[in-house]
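Hi V.,

You were right to ask for the full record rather than a summary. Here it is.
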Amino acid sequence: MKAFIAALALVAQPASAFAAASEGDVLSHYADLAHAKYEDSLITARTLQSAVNQFIAEPTEANLANAQDSWLASRVPYQQSEVYRFGNAIVDDWEGKVNAWPLDEGLLAYVAAS
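Predicted structure:
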């Protein structure tokens, strides 16, 4: 409901409210957002790698839980960065291996939200 109200408020803005941004401003903002998403993805991937390394070195229940939590956390920025990936045949070739089994993204979203 909040998203609907926010979208409605955006649509209700007068055209002059949007006219101030130049094409360069929009592209710069888009690039900044993409950079931030990829940076967040890299940071959480490094955290995940560290957690996996710790689990391999010392396979305890606590380290397993930490690795699992790190994996879940790393998925959020990775999934958000996918919107910036288009037309890259190299990535398209291996992407199914990243987003395929054992993932059920619908279940993953449910688990992350609960």
